[in-house]
Amino acid sequence: MAEKPLITISIPAYNLGSYLAKTLDSILNQTDQQFEVILVDDASTDRTPTTIEQYAAKDNRIRAHSFPSHEGVSKARNYAIDHAKGDIIVFVDGDDLLEPDYLQVMAEGLSDPTIDLVAVGYNWGWRGSGSSEGKFRSVSKTNAYASINRRGGDFGGYTWNKGFRMSIIRDHNIRFDESLALAEDLLFTADYIFVSHKFLFYPAALYTKVSRSNSIIHSATWQMRSKEQTVRQHIDDMAHKMEP
Q1: Second label for 201, Cα 20 to 30 Å away, from 12, 45, 130, 207?
Q2: How far apart are CA 91 and CA 111, in angstroms?
């Protein structure tokens, strides 16, 4: 029997107040306990550093790092990529919640070495599948890529409902664009799918996106939105160069 893969969980944390503890509890309650957490404090000014210190002290799988100044989620996720020990990486936002079998499904789907990416269903307001169906479906490369710019799609371009292979990320030097505050996840997913071939979707909603009024998606400036549209256009342009 093959050894279960180690999963790296990347969590950027910036002024998350009481949200972070709930997120970490949902991780510690996973049915698959073969994981490490790379938890980056992005120069928080609230109770977030204290929460990180408390959880890191009680579980040595939580590896904490602090940025001296605020750098943004992309740099925090790139730090996790650079320091990951896992075979698989997932990118969890520090105010969201995981169902207990989130990591188990990622590990099961990627136990087949020919599968490059696994996506799961999610709940997020009116978006998301909200499904209870627990069976993997194969997704074509064309459909996986087309879903990136489709707002509210079940598969989507979000990174947080997906499990990625570290070998593909390293082999192709895939990174988050640190100049972006919005759509950095869409671009990362596009770059990854562009060089990958086989994808699975597990419709059950295993990830809950928590909406905070002060999150970047609610407080984005016109300039951020403008860059987002440029990224979306770039993703559409890349589609014409994509090979099966």
Answers
A1: 12
A2: 19
Helix (H) or strand (E) holding 83: helix 73-83
For residue 69, give the nearest of 37, 41, 38 by alpha carbon.
Answer: 41
**Tokens representing residue 164 in the block:** 């990625």
Q: Where does the pLDDT of residue 3 fall: very low under 50, low under 70, confident under 90, or very high at 90 and above?
A: confident
Ramachandran area for residue 229 (φ above 0: left; ψ -120 to 50: alpha; else beta): alpha
In tens, the pLDDT along 71-80 reads 999 999 999 9
- Residue 164 backbone dihedrals phi, psi, to 5 degrees: -115, 150
Report whether 128 contacts 134 (CB < 8 A).
no
d(CA 36, CA 24) in angstroms, rounded, equals 12
Please check whether residue 147 is in contact with residue 188, taking contact to mean a CB–CB distance below 8 angstroms: no
